[in-house]
Amino acid sequence: MSNIDTSSPVIELRSLTKTYGLGDAEHRALDGVDLTIEQGEFITIMGPSGCGKTTLLNILGLLDRGTEGDYLLDGGSMEKMGGSRRARIRSQQIGIVFQNFNLINRLSVIENVALPLTYRGMLRTKRLQQASDILKNFHLSEREYYMPWQLSGGQMQRVAIARALVSNPSIILADEPTGNLDSKSSHIIMEELSDIHKRGNTIIMVTHNPALTTYASRVIHMLDGKIDSDTKIPINVESTTEKVPLGAKRTAKEKPEKKPAKKRKTKAKAKPKTKAKKS
Ligand code: ADP
Ligand code: MG
Question: Which among 49, 73, 109, 270 is most buried, taking Cβ atoms within 10 Å?
Fold first, then answer.
């Protein structure tokens, strides 16, 4: 599923515009965005509040549509596609981590995580097994049968990320996944995302934390609905290891070692890849 084919982009936005409101109240949340993303990129998107980051992720995640322009996913136009086909593509290819978790309060942790698998027609026992496997990666095995409201913020966000990853999506969209988290939870999340990236998947993450750009292969700054700067960061080619399905069990031994800080050129001052900072 995740053959790296650098010749054709996985995502292409062509003059994409998103307008809210009418007449005097009209506001361009996205203002003619052109963007090409290859499979296997790890992109961080930064920019001030209100510049259009969430709007962009919602469109990329097929939760919303642009007003003008086009969005091509694997070469196919998404803007003209009907809702049910878009929903199917979303459930097969895209994992979304929302800014505010969006966990379902009446379902237990394991049921929340297993939810995306119901759209795959998988049997319940298999769904729960797969959910349980991925919860281990996030150190949440003991919390499987807790309800969301019994968790801390960091635990809730880890559940939300486990849910986004359980169906092995090749594209992961995350809206400030470590915002407001303690450093331990941030570290677990960033290591997991980094691991998924190394297995050939595409990650697009909104963050306010410049330290987290050290995980990225590309940093995009947005301003007023436009891309203000777009910087590719050389990464360790040897660290791109063979691809294992997402959600597959991994032992501690198989976990990638933390890379030493590499000289990476980035506009935002790159910090050595240490544990995520307290913010
Ligand atoms: P960011 O995530 O960068 O903070 P957003 O994408 O949430 O920014 O919002 C971009 C702009 O679009 C903001 O000015 C916001 O107020 C506006 N906006 C976002 N969603 C809506 C909406 N549903 N209706 C009207 N305006 C919206
Ligand atoms: Mg936002």
Answer: 109
Contact 233, 218 (CB under 8 A): yes
For the segment 64-84, what is each residue's pLDDT rounded down to a tens digit?
A: 999 999 999 999 999 989 999
CB 18 within 8 A of CB 69: no
Domain boundaries, the chain: 16-232
Q: Which CATH class is domain 16-232?
A: alpha beta
Give the count of beta carbons closer than 10 Å to the beta carbon of residue 146. Answer: 15
In whole angstroms, give the CA distance from residue 97 to residue 176: 8
Distance 59 CA to ligand 1 centre (A): 12
58 lines ligand 1 (CB under 6 A): no
For the entire predicted model, the pTM comes to 0.81
Q: 2 pLDDT exceeds 90?
A: no
The CB of 3 under 6 Å from ligand 1? The reply is no
119 lines ligand 1 (CB under 6 A): no
Could you tell me which residues come within 8 angstroms of residue 123 by beta carbon, excluding any fewer than 6 positions away?
Answer: none
